Amino acid sequence: MSEFKLSVIIPVYNEVRTLEEIVQRVRAVNINKEIIIVDDGSTDGSRQVEEKLAQLPEVQVYYHERNMGKGAAVRTALQHVTGDAVIIQDADLEYDPRDYHIMLQPFFEGKAKVVYGSRFLGGPRRAMMFWHMVANKFLTFVTNILYDTILSDMETCYKLFATDVIRTIPLHARGFELEPEITAKVLKRGYRIYEVPISYAGREYHEGKKIKGRDAFIAIWTLLKYRFVD
After folding, report:
1. Range of 133's domain?
2. Mean pLDDT, the chain, as a whole number?
């Protein structure tokens, strides 16, 4: 355990209100880790917070000069990963880093190299917006049909990978289509995804939620496309 290192990727776009808090929550988790922040062209003062956080020994910060999307930010971060496993952590407070231990358990037990934290397996959660829940369920249903699996939450942010797995997957997503692209390519390569229950405190648009209805259509197209190409 002492030699294991977790790489925590935090893509950031205009999260000045929550960024320092989420980094402190990640730091509080008792796991050897590195924190890789990629600022995706923020204009709200996030950069000033990141300059302060960059002084911390386990934090690295990289910048996009313009907003390119969550997928682009994660791809940039992956170039700097040095840990044994990688987890994606949104910069808001929807997902609780205290769940890292739950996510890592099947990894340490040798049960899986890919673990998803599911918001629909009974963990405590703030009620989601109705149409977001419908979209999540539908996209997961489409994933299960196309890729012969039985996931409960394809769109979850909490995706953990062995580093040697994620490095073999060519990623092209620039935006929120990152979630279906990663899932499609993981499953096509024969990795079975292990799901564990996590807590969730979903935000609403006035609190800064960024994903939009059109992203659901992009996700469907992404799932269909990568069923047949790579």
Report:
1. 6-228
2. 91
